[in-house]
Amino acid sequence: MSRYVSPTTDSHASQLELAFEDNRLAAQLYGDFDQNLALIEQRLKVQASPRGNHVMLKGGPSAVDQARRVLESLYAMLEDGQAVDIGSVDSVIRMIDMEDSQLTLPTFEKKGRVRMAQIATRKATIVARTPAQDAYMRAMDRSELIFGVGPAGTGKTYLAVAHAATLLERGDINRIILSRPAVEAGERLGFLPGDMKEKVDPYLRPLYDALYDMMRPEHVERCITSGMIEVAPLAFMRGRTLANAVVILDEAQNTTSMQMKMFLTRLGENSKMIVTGDPTQVDLPRGEQSGLIEAVRLLDGVEGVHISRFNDKDVVRHALVGRIVRAYEADAQKRIDAQTKA
Fold first, then answer.
1. b/e 152-171 (16+ beta carbons within 10 angstroms → b)
2. What global pTM score does this model have?
3. How many C-beta neighbours within 10 Å does residue 26 have?
4. If you ran DSSP here, which 8-state letter would residue 294 be given?
5. E strands within 184-271?
6. pLDDT, tens only, 259-282
């Protein structure tokens, strides 16, 4: 646990020295070549000077306070046995920045460290890296039908598979069912060689990759063989009632209205559905309405349904991905504005 030493503050600058009890954890907190502190300095516009297990923070009062909370939160993660890397630092900064931006009144109460939602699997513990991920992960614990809507790289599908794997390993459900429109808009698989699994597998590769990250490979293979993990094209869901399962529909923006209604009405006892997709990447034929866009509009506010919305700020892949998403969104907005003026 950290403690405070000789804080000094005026209206323009603040100085605060933190001391951490465990020298080994303090070294992990700073990162290789102090890279974690360097990121905190860059993002929060403070100066962070380490000396042994002490860190001196200098900068504006609010920035120093944010840096304190970031370091406290990261140190608490290390005490809990979690690894801390550049991604963790970025995540905590985002969470604290979002927490502060949501304050509507000034407060003189010292804020504590942030606690992010977690999903613990046998292979790894996944920690929320953005406020939207935090809300999404908490919603999966509470709701029966969850929509994760937003651009690529925000963790929608990965976190859904992690949640399902955890419930399966705990015995809370009997199976995981993974589904996806297999080809952009029509599931036209007949021309592909092999049996149904071999036809569908290439389109479900992201779901398999996530499963192997959460579970031992041999366990995944046994579950697939036994039917505890089932991979099914969307068209094969018709007529079924899916009980005691987590059902994940990925790339849902490419479902039609009828397909989405059919899928959502398969929900059975002790089950939950997680639907993920990006409404800006619809590959349906021109004039065909996306089932995802319609479902989000119709079901927003319905009891038992949670809609998590992600944007470019929630992209957790390479930083360039977020900038690419913003560029495309800006271009789309320009086109909309031009059409409106015309």
1. ebbbbbbbbbbbbbbbbbee
2. 0.69
3. 21
4. H
5. 229-231, 245-249
6. 999 999 989 899 999 999 999 888
